[in-house]
Each structure stands twice: as structure tokens, then as C-alpha cells.
């Protein structure tokens, strides 16, 4: 089966340029990329694109002056992240879920529905 994630790819330049970059990539070499996202960088299918970091690190070396931004949402509720790629480097930013502390002053009466 595998673990499914939905992806969205942007750059620090306009969407048209994302389209141009993706249009010249080898679709066979980056077949999981093109299964996961469409030519504009938007989600096409949730997928098991396990090599997304390797693929984007490699692509970022072809476009040294472009910052690629990949957004992912995995099957698990807390698996949400942003990754940035530039000139063969990566920055990973994982979501942090925070809950308020218990505060008795915020307790309210609630009618029980039957």
C-alpha cells in the first residue's frame, strides 16, 4: 500500500515560471513528480513520492537562483510540512500542533443533547 501524501509545488517566481520549469523536465525520470502534481505544481494525485527530496534537490541545482517550495499533507493529521529547496540545499519546516492549557474560567455550561 504505502503512505499517501498530497503535494503542491511553488517557487519564489510566478506560477507561469513553475509551469515552464516543469514543462522541460524529463517526465520518465521524474515520473512520481508528475504523478503527484500537475504541470502548474498543483496536486494531481495523492501519491507515494518517497524521492521528492532527492528529486527537488537535483532540480534545484538546475535552477540555482530559484527557491522551490514544496507543501505536503500526509495521511496522518499531524503530518503537514513545508520544504524549501535552493541550489542543492533543503530546509524542512514541520507543523507544530499546540493546545491551550486548561483554564477553569473558560468552562461553560452545555446542554446535553439526547
Which spans have pLDDT < 50 for at least 5 consecutive residues? none
Distance between the termini: 41 Å
Alpha-beta classification: alpha+beta
Radius of gyration: 19 Å
Helix content: 10-25%
Shape label = elongated
From N to C, what is the helix and strand string? EHHHEEE
Largest sheet: 4 strands, antiparallel
DSSP strand count? 4
What topology, given as strand order, has the largest sheet? 1-2-3-4
Q: Any idea how many domains?
A: 1
What is this structure, in a nutshell?
The protein is an alpha+beta fold. It contains three helices and four strands; from the N terminus they run βαααβββ.
Helices and strands in order:
Layout: E1 5-11, H1 15-24, H2 31-36, H3 52-62, E2 68-74, E3 80-86, E4 89-94
Antiparallel strand pairs: 1-2, 2-3, 3-4
Overview of this structure, please?
There is one protein chain. β3 and β4 form a beta hairpin. It is elongated, with a radius of gyration of 19 Å. It has 114 residues and is α+β, with helices and mostly antiparallel strands. The mean pLDDT is 93. The protein has helices spanning 15-24, 31-36, 52-62; strands at residues 5-11, 68-74, 80-86, 89-94. Strands 1-2-3-4 form a four-stranded antiparallel sheet. It has one domain (5-94).
From the structure above, extract its key features.
alpha+beta, 4 strands, 24% strand, 114 residues, 3 helices
Amino acid at each position: 500500500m504505502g503512505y499517501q501524501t498530497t503535494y503542491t509545488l511553488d517557487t519564489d517566481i510566478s506560477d507561469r515560471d513553475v509551469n515552464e520549469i516543469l514543462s522541460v523536465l524529463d517526465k520518465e525520470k521524474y515520473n512520481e513528480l508528475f504523478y503527484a502534481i500537475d504541470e502548474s505544481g498543483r496536486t494531481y494525485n495523492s501519491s507515494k513520492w518517497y524521492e521528492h527530496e532527492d528529486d527537488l534537490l537535483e532540480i534545484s541545482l538546475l535552477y540555482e537562483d530559484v527557491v522551490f517550495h514544496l507543501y505536503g499533507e500526509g495521511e496522518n493529521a499531524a503530518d503537514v510540512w513545508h520544504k524549501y529547496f535552493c541550489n542543492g540545499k533543503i530546509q524542512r519546516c514541520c507543523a507544530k500542533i499546540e493546545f491551550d492549557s486548561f483554564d477553569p474560567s473558560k468552562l461553560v455550561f452545555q446542554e446535553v443533547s439526547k
